[in-house]
């Protein structure tokens, strides 16, 4: 094996410098598992005995009225909020409740917040480059061969997010939708196993929404994707399995048709005036 091949096998060669997170083990079950999770804020139960299971490679949509606990659920998975009770596992090996936010991210859980946070003065390409550099596992001063690999990964992600033509333009000139895709691309640079996306299409045009539907659908399989969204047309266009949250618990789960015909779900949405 040549020295270049050795060096490019970074997980093995640099393990002693920056131990890579041990891979998520999904052989015996789901990629994400929440059991009886509860959290209260000043006595108010924002999450109330929540049980949720996401399979490896699944695209799951989470819907529910304002205040149902959707964002709080993501806060718990990513380590931003600690639940009062319950368990949260990533594969069968990683107890997320024993880990902090950066370690959970390094393990392969990427989160997209609603507001895009791209670096406007940098080009699209540079934004992706920077996202890769943020990965502790990648050492920057390596061989030309390895930076070639980095470039290949950036090209691959540019294609996925549909921004290849704009690679050398400043991110500041992008439309709102394009910025959202760039931010998803920045998450993808770290090759996450699970992507959490909170309200991705808010403020997007119809066309941008369609493109986002294609993007998220294409990511599932390689990644598991959990999408929280209020836009029902959008959810219907991508949905396989849908979970309805209400008052911090699962109210219903199933196909879009099943949940939208569920009496409890209809009551909750009618009660909201929707
Ligand atoms: N850090 C916090 N401190 C106090 N209350 C909080 C905190 N985070 C969330 N809450 C409350 O918990 C409840 C659930 O909020 P959450 O943001 O998870 O809902 P959501 O389903 O994401 O709603 P939306 O669809 O409006 O985004 C709300 O009543 C909210 O006010
Ligand atoms: Mg929310």
Automatic annotation (TrEMBL):
Originating organism: Marinobacter zhejiangensis
Domain ABC transporter residue range list: 32-272
Keyword Transport: yes
Annotated GO MF terms: ATP binding; ATP hydrolysis activity
UniProt cross-references to CDD domains, sorted A to Z: ABC_Mj1267_LivG_branched (cd03219)
InterPro entries reported in the protein's UniProt record: ABC_AA/LPS_Transport, ABC_transporter-like_ATP-bd, ABC_transptr_urea_ATP-bd_UrtD, BCA_ABC_TP_C, P-loop_NTPase
Keywords carried by this UniProt record: ATP-binding, Nucleotide-binding, Transport
Annotated GO CC locations: plasma membrane
TM region(s), chain numbering: none
Protein name according to UniProt: Urea transport system ATP-binding protein
One Pfam family per UniProt: ABC_tran
Nucleotide-binding listed as a keyword: yes
């Amino acid at each position: 094996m040549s020295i270049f091949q050795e060096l490019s096998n970074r997980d093995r060669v640099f393990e002693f410098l920056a131990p890579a997170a041990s891979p998520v083990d999904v052989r015996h079950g789901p990629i994400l598992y929440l059991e009886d999770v509860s959290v209260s804020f000043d006595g108010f139960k924002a999450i109330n005995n929540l049980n949720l299971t996401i399979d490896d490679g699944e695209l799951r949509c989470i819907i529910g009225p304002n205040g149902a606990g959707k964002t709080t659920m993501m806060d718990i998975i990513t380590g931003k909020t600690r639940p009062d009770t319950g368990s949260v596992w990533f594969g069968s090996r990683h107890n997320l409740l024993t880990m902090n936010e950066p370690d959970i991210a390094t393990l392969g859980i990427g989160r997209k917040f609603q507001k895009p946070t791209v670096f406007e003065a940098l080009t699209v390409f540079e934004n992706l480059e920077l996202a890769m550099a943020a990965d502790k596992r990648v050492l920057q001063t390596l061989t030309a061969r390895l930076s070639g690999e980095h470039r290949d990964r950036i090209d691959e992600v540019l294609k996925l997010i549909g921004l290849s033509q704009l690679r050398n333009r400043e991110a500041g000139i992008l439309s709102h939708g394009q910025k959202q895709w760039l931010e998803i691309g920045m998450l993808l640079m770290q090759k996450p196993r699970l992507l959490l996306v909170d309200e991705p299409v808010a403020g997007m045009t119809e066309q941008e929404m369609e493109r986002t539907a294609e993007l998220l659908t294409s990511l599932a399989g390689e990644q598991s994707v959990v999408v929280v969204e209020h836009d029902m047309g959008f959810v219907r266009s991508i949905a396989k399995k849908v979970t309805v949250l209400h008052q911090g618990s699962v109210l219903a789960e199933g196909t879009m048709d099943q949940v939208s015909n569920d009496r409890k779900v209809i009551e909750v949405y009618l009660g909201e005036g929707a």
